[in-house]
Amino acid sequence: MPLPPIRVIDLETAGNGPHHVCEIGWQDVAQGSDGRWHVNEERGALLVNPGRPILPDTMAVHHIIDADVADAPFWKTIASSVLRPEKGVLALAAHRAAFEQRYCTPRFTGNADWICTWKCALRLWPHLPRFSNQMLRYQRMPEGLVREIGLPAHRAMPDAYVTAHHLRDMLNEASAEQLIAWSREPGLLPRVPAGPERGKSWNRLSSDVLQAFARDRDTDIRFTAQTELTRRGEFTGPAQSQPDQTSLF
Fold first, then answer.
1. Cβ neighbours of residue 175 under 8 Å, at least 6 residues apart?
2. How far apart are CA 214 and CA 28, in angstroms?
3. Which CDD domains match (predicted)?
4. How far apart, in whole angstroms, are the C-alpha atoms of residue 238 and residue 125?
5. pTM to 2 decimals?
6. β-bridge partners, 28
7. 6-184, which class in CATH?
8. Residue 228 dihedral angles phi and psi, to the nearest 5°
9. Which of 142, 114, 145 has its CA nearest to residue 128?
10. In the sheet where 37-47 sits, what is the strand order?
C-alpha cells in the first residue's frame, strides 16, 4: 500500500516575528501504486493577516502588500488546516525547513516529521555548484515541472511547487526515512563555503585546518569538518547537538 503523501510548505512573511506569516503555499508529493513518488494536483495558497504592517524589504521580495492581507485570517486560525490535513501526511517538507519550522510549530503540525530539501540536496547532489531552490530548478531542470505553475518565484505556492519536484526526485533516490534522518542533522557541505579554502572538498584539507573548522561558529561547517575528521579517525571532541539550521550557503 502506498505511503501517505508528503506536504511541501513554503511561507512568505511580513518580517521576522514569530507570527508574521503573510502567505502559506503547499504542494503534495504522493507515492503511486508503482512505488514511485509523483507531484500531484493537491496544491494551493492562502493569504494570512500578519497582524502588523509588512516591511518594505519583504514586500520587495514577494510583492504582497498590506491591502492584500487586510481581510485574511490570522496565522493561528489557518495554520493547522494546511499543516494537518484530514487525510494526514507522512511528513512536512520545505527548502531550508528551519525557516518554516519557526512558524510551523508542533502546536500546528502535530509534531510531524520534517524533510529539509536543502540538506538532502547536499547529500544526494554534492556535485552541483549551488543549492538554493531556484538554482536547483535551473541546474537540474526537473522533469514535468510546468514553468507557469512555478512562477512567480518568491510566492508561496509556486515555490512549494518547485521544491516538490526536487523532493519527488529525492524520494525516488532515497527513502523518506533517510531524508528525515539527514534533515535532523546539520547540513553536510560538499565544499568549503568561504575563506582561503573556499571551493575545496573537505577531504583535501589538512587535519589542522579541519580541526580549526571543527570549532567554527557555523553549525554546518562544524558538523562537516567533524564528519571528515571522524571518517579519518581523528575527531576527538564531543559530537555537537542539533540546533536550528539558519545560516545561508
1. none
2. 38
3. DEDDh
4. 28
5. 0.92
6. 7
7. alpha beta
8. -70, -40
9. 142
10. 37-47, 21-31, 6-13, 91-94, 114-116
